[in-house]
Amino acid sequence: MGARLSRSGSSLSLLPERQAAGRPAERRESDNDSLDGLVRREDIAQFPYVEFTGRDSITCPTCQGTGRIPSEQVNELVALIPYSDQRLQPQRTKLYVVLSVVLCLLASSLVAFFLFPRSVVVVDAGIRSVTVQFDHSSSTVLMNMTSTLNFSNPNFFSVLVQSVNCQVLYMKTVIGTQQLDNATTIQPLGHSQVNYTVSVEIGSSTPYVYAFCTMPSIKVHNIVVFMQTSVKTSYMVRTSQNSLEAYRYIDCGSNTTYPWTRQQHRPSLP
């Protein structure tokens, strides 16, 4: 039923049976084609680079048609990157710039704060003691006046007190001088004190002073002297100078020790 007979010579066959028999053959042919395709792709993958040059083509000057870059030219060759490549588009540029500026300002502020030179404060603490001697043969009064200077260093580095110069005058006449070199070194944010002694001689040019100082009927023999003190300090690459001036009362009749009093100074321009 439903089968059609055909005659070919002496053989008989059913058409549906031939069609059924042909289907496995077609499947085998398709499988063979797919296997051939895989083998062909593998062969192509293993096939070396070949540059096919024609009439209008030239050989690659970099690899010379080999498809590989020589190892000795790795550091000499430059790769071309498309303009749209993401590596050429910096990220967070503004943030990095702002952070850099802030860090630079902070570092500059710290350096300026710690290294900016500040003036050294010099205070004349006055006369500490006076020793008196008399030369009766020449009617001369000899005195040794010991004074004190207080130093305060507001800097974050050491300060050297290069010199201390003092001059004592009586009635506009110089009666004594003293100079100290490399007196002391003041530590950072520290304080220091320098004592210096000035030898004073009031001679025959003012004989009334000798008479006044040796007069036994007077208990206190005060005279007024004028003291000029110059202090020179140096730190880093800067040198400054302070000038101190003051009138002092001293007792020229006997040895005297004075209580410590803080006297303000008059600073001069460096």
What features would you describe in this structure?
The chain is α+β, with helices and mostly antiparallel strands. Helices cover 23% and strands 39% of the residues. The chain contains three helices and ten strands. It has helices spanning 15-46, 93-115, 207-213, and strands at residues 5-8, 11-14, 121-135, 140-152, 159-170, 173-186, 191-202, 222-235, 238-251, 256-257. The strands form three sheets. Strands 7-4-3-10 form a four-stranded antiparallel β-sheet. A four-stranded antiparallel β-sheet has the order 6-5-8-9, with no helix packed on it. A hairpin with a 2-residue loop joins strand 1 and strand 2.
Task: Jot down its keywords.
270 residues; alpha+beta; four-stranded antiparallel β-sheet; 10 strands; rod-shaped; disordered N terminus; disordered C terminus
**Derived structural class:** alpha+beta
Q: Give the overall shape.
A: rod-shaped
Low-confidence runs of at least 5 consecutive residues: 1-21, 262-270
Q: Major sheet, described briefly?
A: 4 strands, antiparallel
Helical amount? 10-25%
What does the oligomeric state look like here?
Answer: single chain
| Spatial strand order of the main sheet | 7-4-3-10
Beta content comes to: 35-45%
Order of helices and strands: EEHHEEEEEHEEE
CA-CA gap between termini: 133 Å
How many helices? The count is 3
Rg of Cα set: 54 Å
The overall strand count is 10
